[in-house]
Amino acid sequence: MVSITKDIDKEKVIAQFWPQISRAASGYESRPALSDELAQEMALSVWRSLEGFNDQCSLNTYIYRVIHNTAIDHIRRHSRISEDELDETTLCESPTPEKSALQAQRQHQLIIAVNKLPLSLRQVMLLKLEDLNNIEMSEVLGISEANVGVRLHRAKEQLSTLLAGMN
After folding, report:
1. Nearest alpha carbon to residue 27 among 148, 134, 125
2. So what CATH class is 96-167?
3. Dihedral angle at the C-alpha atoms of 113, 119, 124, 126, nearest 10 degrees?
4. What's phi and psi for 100, nearest 5 deg?
5. Average of pLDDT values for 111-127?
6. Cβ neighbours of residue 109 under 8 Å, at least 6 residues apart?
7. pLDDT at residue 3 tops 90
8. Which residues are within 8 A (CB) of 10 and not within 5 positions of it... i.e. 6 or more apart?
9. DSSP string spanning the chain?
10. What percent of the chain has pLDDT over 90?
């Protein structure tokens, strides 16, 4: 197998995808310290895996696959926390105006609701929030595009129910 890593600057790839890595880490792990640890673990996994990237899919899809597989391994090692244990100050730092406060509250509620979803639904919702389309999500998760659609529909329904219960 011929590797194309000679053309890939690993540092640039990590820097380019760091916002996605960070968001994915906070989507899978609510505890700030473990979220930071998970983000670092994801970045290291991406760094190491770039040597095996052989252009069978887009780099974007490949990176998401690596970070989500790393997140699944992390979840297997650590238990998730309840909503009561979330540190609101780290999740929603906002300025004082009412509009910003309301937006921060909604984002906080969305994070809590997404964290309550079963893993299979949380995965598709996190990828959707990263603006991946169904085809890209199916490649990342290794499931059919139809299954992505079903999971996405179920995730949206459960999110609606969870968010309605928070109001």
Report:
1. 125
2. mainly alpha
3. 50
4. -65, -40
5. 90
6. 163, 166
7. no
8. 47, 50
9. ----GGG--HHHHHHHHHHHHHHHHHHH--SHHHHHHHHHHHHHHHHHHGGG--SSS-HHHHHHHHHHHHHHHHHHHSPPPPGGG--HHHH----SSHHHHHHHHHHHHHHHHHHHS-HHHHHHHHHHHTT--HHHHHHHHTS-HHHHHHHHHHHHHHHHHHHHHH-
10. 35
**Structure-model confidence comparison of residues 90 and 32, the more confident one:** 32
Any idea where the domains of the chain sit in the sequence? Answer: 7-79, 96-167
Whole-number CA gyration radius for the chain: 17
Q: Read off the pLDDT of residues 62-84 as tens digits, 9 standing for 90 and up.
A: 998 899 889 888 877 765 443 44
Q: What angle do CA 129, 123, 102 make, to 5 degrees?
A: 40
For residues 18-29, average pLDDT: 89
- Judge residue 116's burial from the number of C-beta atoms within 10 Å of its C-beta, 0-12 exposed, 13-18 middle, 19 or more buried: middle
User: What architecture is the 7-79 domain classified under in CATH?
Assistant: Orthogonal Bundle (1.10)
Encoded tokens for 108: 């906080």
Taking Cα atoms as reference points, which of 86, 160, 90, 87 lies closest to residue 121? 160
